[in-house]
Amino acid sequence: MYQEDNISLNKSDLEEFFIHHLNKIYAAKTLLVSELPELFDSVYFSDLREGILDTIEEVKKQISRMDEIYDILDISYIDANPNGLKGLIEDSFQDIKQHSENPELRDMSILFYLHNIESIEMASFQILEMLAVKLRINKIKQLIQDNYEDAKASRTLLLLINAKYISTV
């Protein structure tokens, strides 16, 4: 039997959900900042090297904005669950390292995984932005929206680099 949807979430449940998923993205972003410089030294394709540098700088800005969100909410980041996006990133870096002997495949793997990671982060930021609207926290909404725009720009850049890379292979 079909029943009319009547969704009822209280503000504290929404805040808890928001914080839990903000923590997941924060964990992923901090892992990216620590791992990407290691990849940079082994990248073969010069455009990808520039893309990685750009991504590192954008991720640092995103982390700074998330730090500001934690300050606004008067909470601290908690790394409660190593799975999720952080686990995907860890798996991605392991797969990339499997191609360490083949620079072309390693670069293709880097592009593949970075593009996928940015896509997932964009979707996550969109949902968090909607929650911030529902929670009526305009400053947080703007910070999340800025992170979404950065992730979108990084994804577009990686897509362009990937297209150029594939055309030169």
Automatic annotation (TrEMBL):
Matching InterPro entries, A to Z? DUF892_YciF-like (IPR010287), Ferritin-like (IPR012347), Ferritin-like_SF (IPR009078), YciF (IPR047114)
Q: Which Pfam families does this UniProt record tie to the protein?
A: DUF892
Q: Which domain of life is it from?
A: Bacteria
Protein name per the record = Ferritin-like metal-binding protein YciE
